[in-house]
Amino acid sequence: MRQIKIYDTTLRDGTQAEDFNLSLADKIRIAQKLAHLGIHYIEGGWPGSNPKDKDFFTEIRNYELGLSRIAAFGSTHHKDRAPEADPNMQELLISLAPVVTIFGKSSLFQVREILQTTPERNLELITGSLGYLKPRVEELFYDAEHFFDAFKEDRDYALSSLEAALKGGAQYLVLCDTNGGTLTSDLMEIVKAVQGRFPKTPLGIHAHNDSELAVANSVAAVELGCSQVQGTINGVGERCGNANLCSIIPNLQLKMGLACLDPGHLKRLTEVSRFVYEAANVRPNRYQPYVGKSAFAHKGGIHAAAVKRNPKAYEHIDPALVGNARVIPVSDLSGRGNILMKAQELGLEMGSHDAAVRQALDKLKQFLGLEAQGLELPPFDSNIKTILDKVKELEAQGFQFEDAEASLELLLRAALGQYKEYFQLQAYRVIDQKVGGPESPLPEATLRVRVGPHEVHTAAFGNGPVDALNNALLKALVRFYPRLTEIILEDYKVRVLPGMRGTGAMVRVLIVCRDGHQWWNTVGVATDIIDASWQALVDSITYKLFRDEQGVK
Q1: Measured between alpha carbons, how far apart are the two ends of the chain, in Å?
Q2: CB within 8 A of 110, min separation 6: which ones?
Q3: Radius of gyration, alpha carbons of the chain
């Protein structure tokens, strides 16, 4: 089977999108997810451009990424310096990335107006940069920036820029539609011309979506023989975005029969898509092909009836192939696939456990704080379908589990009677005192919890009301559970949920924690931001204690 190499640039090109921001911890977590998916190349960033990207290459060495390879990105060396004297070149080598991708100018317009040098000097920059890096890195790729526009402008010079890259030792020539304005028919003709000039050279494609053709152009290039595809998860990127790997990969693998991911890995695609959205604190696009929540939703009565008889009536693929689920609103099929799939991943048998479920439902209400929100679970039904429907009702209240797998696991275990209550809240109070002057407010949390027969009363300050509450809770529990000192609260995100406007809106809090063995994410929802944070904190600590008790690392 013909192999197509997938090159992900979410952590570099994707972060150039407006309102799409990732911390260093976010980038590490996404890289791990991409590796779990089976992406061949993960571009971590431009190490010479900012400290965060530089730190990423140092930190990522501490993680096992399987067969995925980390790539560092950079430009040709400065026109007035030799490559060995160019700081950006040196940063690429300091990153120790096994793969380096260099971009250079293909367009005479770009050379004269932007780079402000001569066409001949530009070719020297391309050859010199690649030639300097070639013996010092394991794999070396060349991104021909603005190539399709350059080809239309001056065919001979555009091809000579590729010749210069090959002379320098590039192992892949990646043709870039940097402005995203090339029509598919034009792109195909240009790719054929490049293949005619360099028939034995491996080619890649890097498309942008300014004409909403990035996916089509990428697929067309592969049809013609390109063997590397660059893009981002969910198509995030500057302006209108990059080519969307969440559409490209299943198109290549399911529709064209090409090998992209290892067998069985494609079903992780939806999970990775939603993980990236949540990590960036961006609302997912529910109408996105393949991985969107509405990608396999059938609301019309005729459609729903037909799909019940045979899903092929209105579905182009089985949604389970990409890890998604069929949704038929107001029906017994709504969302069951999502929960069942996650239960299987966790090794949980979601059979009928009537007695255990009866005992668990009250605990479920308690640790999610449903009573405090004025919410009630529907009457108990021993059928496992009803249990799953209850979980979906929690999602309808605003709980989101795509990037809160620890909370989801606790939910499922509660439904199976496996939830353990390590402590009980008696009361908490948070005071945020602001005194006149430039000093910041001084938040203080007081807390009463019961651990077995013991009642503990603690107080703590913090950098904010939630931090103070977290400090007080850990202070109360650490004497009983010393390993809680291992917890590091890595990230904290708040999203206002649609519905009630203004300060009365519901909010969802996502907390990311880690210890020496793993990362985990939890979620809470309430109209009170501190209450929502409390729910997520309790889940996080409970998950840590449960996993330690089970000896799971």
Answers
A1: 37
A2: 145, 146, 150
A3: 26
Give the neighbor-by-neighbor strand order of the sheet with 442-451: 424-433, 442-451, 454-461
Contact indicator for 72, 79 with CB cutoff of 8 Å: no
**Residue 384 pLDDT more than 70?**
no
**CA dihedral in degrees (480, 482, 483, 488; nearest 10)?**
100
Q: What is the DSSP string of 428-483?
A: EEEEEE--SSSSPPEEEEEEEEEETTEEEEEEEE-SSHHHHHHHHHHHHHTTT-GG
Nearest to 244 by CA among 195, 267, 277: 277
Compute the distance between CA of residue 488 and CA of residue 513 in angstroms, rounded to an integer: 6
Q: Which of 479, 470, 473, 443 is nearest to 458 (CA)?
A: 473
* 224-259 as b/e: b if 16+ CB within 10 A: bebbbbbbbbbbbbbeebbbbbbbbbbbbbbeeebe
Residue 379: how many CB atoms within 10 A of its CB?
Answer: 7
Q: What is the 3-state secondary structure (H, E, C) of 245-299?
A: HHHHHHHHHHHCCCECCCCCCHHHHHHHHHHHHHHCCCCCCCCCCCCCCCCCECC
- pLDDT at residue 534 in the model: 95
Cβ-Cβ contacts under 8 Å for 531 (sequence gap 6 or more):
369, 372, 524
In degrees, rounded to 5, the angle at the alpha carbon of residue 349 between the alpha carbons of residues 344 and 353 is 145
pLDDT tens string 304-340: 677 778 888 989 999 999 999 887 653 333 345 445 5
Residue 387, both tokens: 């249990």
Amino acid symbol at 308: K
pLDDT at 328: 65
Which run of H or of E encompasses 2? none
Query: Exposed (0-12), middle (13-18) or buried (19+): which is 30, by Cβ within 10 Å?
Result: buried
Kindly write down the DSSP assignment for every residue of 207-234, as one continuous string.
EB-TTS-HHHHHHHHHHHT--EEEEBGG
Residues 6+ apart with CB under 8 A from 146: 105, 106, 107, 110, 176, 178, 179
Q: φ, ψ for residue 128 (rounded to 5)?
A: -65, -40
Cα separation, 382 vs 365, whole angstroms: 17
> 433-451 pLDDT, tens per residue?
877 777 778 899 999 999 9
DSSP 320: G
CA distance 104 to 553: 45
* Dihedral sign (CA 381, 382, 384, 390): positive
**Angle at CA of residue 300, ends 297 and 305, nearest 5°:** 90
In sequence order, which residues have a C-beta less than 8 Å from that of residue 343 and are 6 or more positions away?
349, 350, 412
Phi, psi of 439 (to 5 degrees): -65, 150
Residues 6+ apart with CB under 8 A from 114: 105
